[in-house]
Design brief:
By secondary structure, this protein is α/β, with parallel strands linked by helices. It has helices spanning 46-53, 98-103, 107-110, 118-130, 146-158, 176-191, 204-207, 227-230, 235-242; strands at 6-17, 20-31, 35-39, 61-66, 69-70, 80-83, 164-168, 196-200, 213-218, 220-226. A hairpin with a 2-residue loop joins strand 1 (6-17) and strand 2 (20-31).
Length: 258
């Protein structure tokens, strides 16, 4: 059942390739203003679920609603920003400035061949300022570090002024120091700018002081609730969820992992 307070409602989603189920009867929601961490082992169906949410895959069973509308009828895509796994696969020789890369996020509003107005240029500058990268506006995107590039990709997602940001394993290939700064940025975007976030991540221990809710997926949804409740689980509980041994490092002691 959809409500006006949820950015996403996932209702009894199942998806399979032949006889192999990737997702089975998955239901959860992302409330407006929440910061949800979606965690689970490799092959647990996290990226498949994100593709279904974005309308890129169609489930064999169940429904997805975005902002109260069925995904097949949803048209307000500028309200949803998306950041994928980029840092470890971006072409460092790509001849584009940071400003140009961020402006690509306005394509849906501008079209492919329309010139940018001063308001559009200001939107790019504002997005870069929001992620702390305004001084790199004229730099070549390929010259930046992985952590800096990911900030630029977030700026590109933010330039259309979305209400909701989806990030799929955005810190893959990013060094530990940059990862910590990156999560701090996400926490700021959520708390200070009111942007709803859905973060797919392996870093269970490092996100618990930032996210408001956790969803633990391994084909089926093993847990979905507030972070405080999730933190009550011990390693044995999480190992049951994951299907293999899990040891979580508390965020107070550095970087977490599994």
């Amino acid at each position: 059942m959809t409500t006006n307070t949820n950015m996403i409602d996932v209702n009894n989603i199942s998806f399979h390739y032949g006889d192999r189920y990737v997702l089975e009867d998955v239901s959860f929601s992302v409330p407006k203003g929440a910061f949800v961490g979606l965690v689970g082992p490799n092959g647990s169906g996290k990226s498949t679920l994100i593709k279904i949410v974005l309308g890129l895959l169609k489930p064999q069973k169940g429904q997805i609603h975005l902002l109260g509308k069925q995904v097949s009828k949803f048209q307000q895509w500028s309200k949803i920003g998306y950041v994928s796994q980029k840092a470890n696969s971006f072409n460092s020789g790509f001849p584009a400035s940071v400003f140009e890369v961020v402006s690509m996020g306005l394509t849906s509003k501008l079209g492919l061949f329309r010139f940018m107005k001063s308001t559009h240029k200001q939107a790019v500058t504002d997005a870069l300022t929001l992620v702390g990268m305004e001084e790199y506006s004229e730099s070549n995107i390929g010259e930046l570090s992985g952590g800096q590039q990911q900030r630029i990709f977030i700026a590109r997602a933010l330039v259309s002024d979305p209400d909701f940001l989806i990030l799929d394993e955005p810190t893959v290939g990013v060094d530990a120091g940059s990862t910590s700064e990156f999560y701090n940025l996400l926490g700021k975007l959520n708390k200070e700018n009111g942007i709803t976030l859905l973060l797919v991540t392996h870093d269970i221990g490092t996100i618990t002081d930032k996210v408001t809710h956790v969803a633990c997926l391994n084909r089926t949804l093993h847990f979905h609730g507030e972070t405080e409740e999730f933190e009550q689980f011990n390693d044995s509980d999480l190992s049951d969820f994951y299907g293999h041994h899990v040891h979580v490092l508390n965020h107070d002691h550095g970087h977490g992992g599994v």
